[in-house]
Amino acid sequence: MMSVFSLCLLLCADLLDLAVGYLTVTIEPLPPVVVGETVTLKCNFKTDGRLREIVWYRVTDGGTIKQKIFTYDAMFNTNYSHMEDYRRREDLVYQSTVRLPEVRISDNGPYECHVGIYDRATREKVVLASGNVFLTVMSPPNNISVVAENTPAPFSRYQAQNFTLVCTAKGGKPAPSVYFKRDGELIEVISYTQPTAGDQTGGGSAGFRGARPLISRDLDETKMQRSLSLLDPESRSARLYTEGPQRVHTQGQQASEPSPATEVIPETVVSREFPRWVHSTDPLYYFSHTHVPQSDGSVVVQARLTWTLNPQLDNDALFSCEVKHPALSMPMQTEITLAAPKGPKLFMTPSRAKVGDTVRITVQGFQNEVFPEPLFTWTRVGGRLLDGSTEREGKELILERVPAELNGSMYRCTAQNPLGSTDTHTRLIVFENPSMMKNTQSQNNGVSNMDAVGLTWMALVLTVTVELT
Predict the structure, then answer these.
(1) Helix H or strand E segment including 47
(2) Is the pTM of this model over 0.85?
(3) Among 182, 202, 222, 248, which residue carries the largest CB count within 10 Å?
């Protein structure tokens, strides 16, 4: 039997429920959405009391700050936004539902719905209940690119060298997955540890090279000795997926017409002079990647693919970088083709160089698309450059105030990248400068006139001297 005390407690509870009423709030969970889509926040509540208000909050700074974004006032049957005019993007669908059109990455985070009803006992006090939901906003990568690390770099005929492609994907949230392909086939790779973003930014490429597995260069003239350090404990290469998109590097475009001041010399191609250390047809590829969070919530992903370059086999090889992301219906892709430079096109200005002119010889592209970026070196055949140096780097050679002595001099432009090298020559023809000749003649005439005046005065002095004697 229940005691009198227990019955009293139950009776008090029932009376309290009648006085206060009940209020429950639930919010339907949201699936991830993509930037630019429209999101509807639904706040479901049940109550037997009289509604006072519904307020939506956006929670920031780990829950320490709650920012009002929308309010429905049941007393006056009005609703209004608490955001600035330029960000008034909330629309009330009905009393407890808010729509956010064209969501942005900054909208990512938790939201709360607070519902208030009047206390039945006092009719003045408001009873509150709330629910929360997390809005996950995804953003596909908006930029992908591929570059060759540590370039421009020279071609090496006598020593094997490592080559690294760096693929960067920006703007993705969450971080995308990235992988490399060669000639349309997924590349088998071996993973290695990449330094942290802080170490990489602080130490530059040197820090990255320190963490990279060393590829043996102890090679004689007839065969390659592969280091055991490149294999896993079971002497098998692992399969890995790489990350990052690529961009195609193109150089220059139209050939310049030969000018009277330029003699076009056929190029000398040395990119096919490969040594006997060339590697096998099955190279080992090494892969690493880093994720760098950005202030807007997106992640920059950098993926590196490293292998020992084989100029014979890697020339004209097609590498593609594909990026997968849940916000994309199909992978993003970019391609680059490894290619040694061929046929640099030289252009000289002015077309008729005269004594005293400043002459510029510029590389204006190649016969093919070149990747990676080539290194340009200028030399003078049989002598030093005008400034006394033996060579000059850069895409343009500048000769200031050329003297007549440079007429007929020949200049060599060497364009090279890790895949090969090529030489192109041009001859400088220097014409006489009429304006300088006139100045010289005027000066000579002035000197002759002065000499004549001097002789006349000398004759007068001699005459006066003779008369006095």
Answers:
(1) strand 39-47
(2) no
(3) 182
